[in-house]
Amino acid sequence: MTDRTFYENLDAIDPLEPLRAEFHLPVDAIYLNGNSLGVMPLAAPVRAKHVMLQEWADDLTASWNKAQWSTLPLQLGNKIAPLAGVGPDEIVVCDSTSVNLYKVLYTAMDIMRRRAPEKRRIVSEKNSAPTDLYIAQTLCTQFGMTLDLVDSDTLHAAIDDHLAILLLTHVNYQTGAVHNMADLTARAHLHGALAVWDVCHSVGAIPIEFGRSDADFAVGCTYAYLNGGPGAPAFVWVHPRHVDQIAQPLAGWMGHAAPLAFDQQYQPAAGILRYLCGTPAILSMSVLESGLDVFHKAQGYGGMTEIHKKAQTLTSLFIQLVEKECAGSGLRLLSPRDPEQRASLVSLTHPSAAHAIIQALRARGVIGAYREPDILRFGFAPLYTRYTDVWDAVMQLKSVLTTLS
Ligand SMILES: Cc1ncc(COP(=O)(O)O)c(C=O)c1O
């Protein structure tokens, strides 16, 4: 791994390499921010044009049936299902992650209020995504519950008989550290609690098994590794044991059992469709489908197994190369060193120049992200990131550090 040839050879034998051609990639740039906003599938503008100029412009309301607009939220959910380890008609695409989290967390709190009203404690991780914490804080006030934020190494101990709901992001957005969904869910269940998962930073990057993990509720975004486009709608999954037991709080007409009956009384639809609220964002959803279709194609190239393997190799090589080439620069590894405990991103810290380094890299065409207070974050989306990108990015990083010192 001491010269570029090693990385070129890895690219030459990469089974996922043909999938890179499915995307528009920025010219003269190494994009290491696909964990935030995925790149554009080449099929997306073609699909958008068709939806706009044919389905919308010419066919108008006929498209609800003719172009299957009305079933798009479930169709897309069914395309996400294999990435999340669940069966058909268990996931629906709609709204944003934050809104969907509101729905499922409210529902989970409602279940616990009926099942064990004495349990009033929600546990989450200290540096969880802020939006998840804001939603949890709002609902805790509404339900008279308390939100306890703990460090990841004390999570196990925090799951005790007082716990009502465990709310976790599967992969931490700052560090890329992966929680064991099955173990933590099992522990929560053992103590009579429910487990709610946010998979924004894991879906499409590492395998997820909602079903086998026996999770209760989950939400995730589609604009990151699923390449759904800016502001693409999110998705929601509810375990079949809960889904028909209780109505979600945002009772809109699209979640009604018969939306076109225009009934004055709300009657929730059966199954996951009740988690819909208002009219689906057809343009965004259509574009998202182009991103999901690449994952479908990826099944012919080893699917999530190869994607996960490549994520681990890319991130491991990046860490090894940074530690070798940038030794003594003040950079420290924040992400877990063990690839099994890490998703598809690597975070480093620098005590004084994290922001300046990210800016200098950007000027040289290496796109990472800065996170307060001292974090440099690099995402390695396996569908389109090359091994040579790792080499080239680290060489630029080394050069930037030399100019800064
Ligand atoms: C873990 C996590 N959850 C939720 C969100 C926000 O999702 P949305 O903007 O779809 O509500 C983010 C944003 O990046 C996130 O990182």
TrEMBL record:
<dbReference type="Pfam" id="PF22580">
    <property type="entry name" value="KYNU_C"/>
</dbReference>
<keyword id="KW-0662">Pyridine nucleotide biosynthesis</keyword>
<protein>
    <recommendedName>
        <fullName>Kynureninase</fullName>
        <ecNumber>3.7.1.3</ecNumber>
    </recommendedName>
</protein>
<comment type="similarity">
    <text>Belongs to the kynureninase family.</text>
</comment>
<dbReference type="GO" id="GO:0097053">
    <property type="term" value="P:L-kynurenine catabolic process"/>
</dbReference>
<dbReference type="GO" id="GO:0005737">
    <property type="term" value="C:cytoplasm"/>
</dbReference>
<comment type="pathway">
    <text>Amino-acid degradation; L-kynurenine degradation; L-alanine and anthranilate from L-kynurenine: step 1/1.</text>
</comment>
<dbReference type="InterPro" id="IPR015421">
    <property type="entry name" value="PyrdxlP-dep_Trfase_major"/>
</dbReference>
<dbReference type="InterPro" id="IPR010111">
    <property type="entry name" value="Kynureninase"/>
</dbReference>
<comment type="pathway">
    <text>Cofactor biosynthesis; NAD(+) biosynthesis; quinolinate from L-kynurenine: step 2/3.</text>
</comment>
<dbReference type="GO" id="GO:0030429">
    <property type="term" value="F:kynureninase activity"/>
</dbReference>
<keyword id="KW-0663">Pyridoxal phosphate</keyword>
<dbReference type="InterPro" id="IPR015424">
    <property type="entry name" value="PyrdxlP-dep_Trfase"/>
</dbReference>
<dbReference type="GO" id="GO:0009435">
    <property type="term" value="P:NAD+ biosynthetic process"/>
</dbReference>
<keyword id="KW-0378">Hydrolase</keyword>
<dbReference type="InterPro" id="IPR015422">
    <property type="entry name" value="PyrdxlP-dep_Trfase_small"/>
</dbReference>
<dbReference type="GO" id="GO:0030170">
    <property type="term" value="F:pyridoxal phosphate binding"/>
</dbReference>
<comment type="function">
    <text>Catalyzes the cleavage of L-kynurenine (L-Kyn) and L-3-hydroxykynurenine (L-3OHKyn) into anthranilic acid (AA) and 3-hydroxyanthranilic acid (3-OHAA), respectively.</text>
</comment>
<dbReference type="GO" id="GO:0043420">
    <property type="term" value="P:anthranilate metabolic process"/>
</dbReference>
<comment type="subunit">
    <text>Homodimer.</text>
</comment>
<dbReference type="GO" id="GO:0019441">
    <property type="term" value="P:L-tryptophan catabolic process to kynurenine"/>
</dbReference>
